[in-house]
UniProtKB/TrEMBL annotation:
<feature type="transmembrane region" description="Helical">
    <location>
        <begin position="118"/>
        <end position="139"/>
    </location>
</feature>
<feature type="transmembrane region" description="Helical">
    <location>
        <begin position="93"/>
        <end position="111"/>
    </location>
</feature>
<feature type="transmembrane region" description="Helical">
    <location>
        <begin position="64"/>
        <end position="87"/>
    </location>
</feature>
<keyword id="KW-1133">Transmembrane helix</keyword>
<feature type="transmembrane region" description="Helical">
    <location>
        <begin position="145"/>
        <end position="166"/>
    </location>
</feature>
<feature type="transmembrane region" description="Helical">
    <location>
        <begin position="32"/>
        <end position="52"/>
    </location>
</feature>
<keyword id="KW-0812">Transmembrane</keyword>
<keyword id="KW-0472">Membrane</keyword>
<protein>
    <submittedName>
        <fullName>Uncharacterized protein</fullName>
    </submittedName>
</protein>
Length: 184
């Protein structure tokens, strides 16, 4: 087992243990058993998806791009469940973020993780992410949209970084298939 895997799964365990410890010292942290189950499923699922994603290519840029994309999905889900991105977690406008997660999930499977195609998928995802802010304004959603604009921009930047990494990986590999290059 590589030290990356040990470090990654150790980090997941630390994240799960942290609220349990915090509950002993602060009344502000109040997690239920359901909260721990949801966190375990989200973090464990993220870890498994990262494990699967990094096995799709030996190219470091591909692996990092895949990891960024997966963690970006986790953060969007976690923020929506915890506090919401648009208004609070109960604001129905937050359901628009399902389109971002769905696009990445369905697109990745449909494109079979091919690096060049994943690059374009990440660009499309960044556009959808930013479009949510525009939709919130057009729909006149009653919430302070400044934090949503900031978060959507930050997520879009991460999608674009992932796109660049996939593009770099596609120049040498597309998945695990080396491209043929002529040498003169």
């Amino acid at each position: 087992m590589s030290w990356f895997r040990v470090l990654g799964w150790g980090f997941v365990l630390a994240l799960l243990i942290t609220p349990a410890i915090a509950m002993r010292f602060s009344e502000e942290v109040q997690w239920t058993a359901f909260d721990f189950v949801v966190a375990a499923v989200l973090l464990g699922g993220t870890g498994l998806l990262i494990e699967l994603g990094v096995r799709m290519s030996t190219h470091l840029a591909y692996r990092v791009g895949m990891t960024i994309a997966i963690i970006n999905c986790l953060l969007i889900i976690w923020l929506n469940l915890a506090v919401g991105i648009i208004g609070n977690e109960e604001n129905p406008a937050n359901s628009m973020y399902l389109s971002v997660i769905g696009l990445v999930a369905v697109g990745s499977v449909f494109l079979r993780g091919k690096a060049n195609a994943m690059s374009w998928l990440m660009i499309a995802t960044a556009i959808v992410q930013l479009s949510i802010s525009i939709a919130a304004v057009l729909l006149e959603i009653p919430a302070d949209l400044q934090p949503a604009f900031f978060l959507n921009s930050a997520f879009a930047i991460l999608w674009v970084i992932a796109a660049g990494l996939f593009k770099a990986a596609s120049e040498r590999y597309d998945g695990e298939k080396p491209t043929t290059q002529r040498h003169s």
